[in-house]
Description:
Elements: H1 7-17, H2 23-37, H3 41-48, H4 52-59, H5 67-83
Helix pairs in contact: 1-2, 1-5, 2-5, 3-4
Amino acid sequence: MCRFPTPEERILAIIETTDVRNEQSFAGMLHSAMEYLHLSNADAAIIFQTSPGTVSRWENGHTAPAIPTREVVKTLLRAAVEVYPFTSGAIK
Length: 92
């Protein structure tokens, strides 16, 4: 029997397979995870300890943090998805 992945499984797969050395790949992962978690730029800025404008630039692919910081962001997003599986309005 074929089983389709849950939204949580899909976003975790995106996070796990993202090569943080690639800025566009990082931006896509960040955007997808923020959308799944219903995070605004201001919410994400608090989590990542940066400004909302910086999160916006990361999410849009205009810039990206240093690679070690991208790994930390990836780890934090993975943990957030695992702790808050998708339900309508899981975080907000």
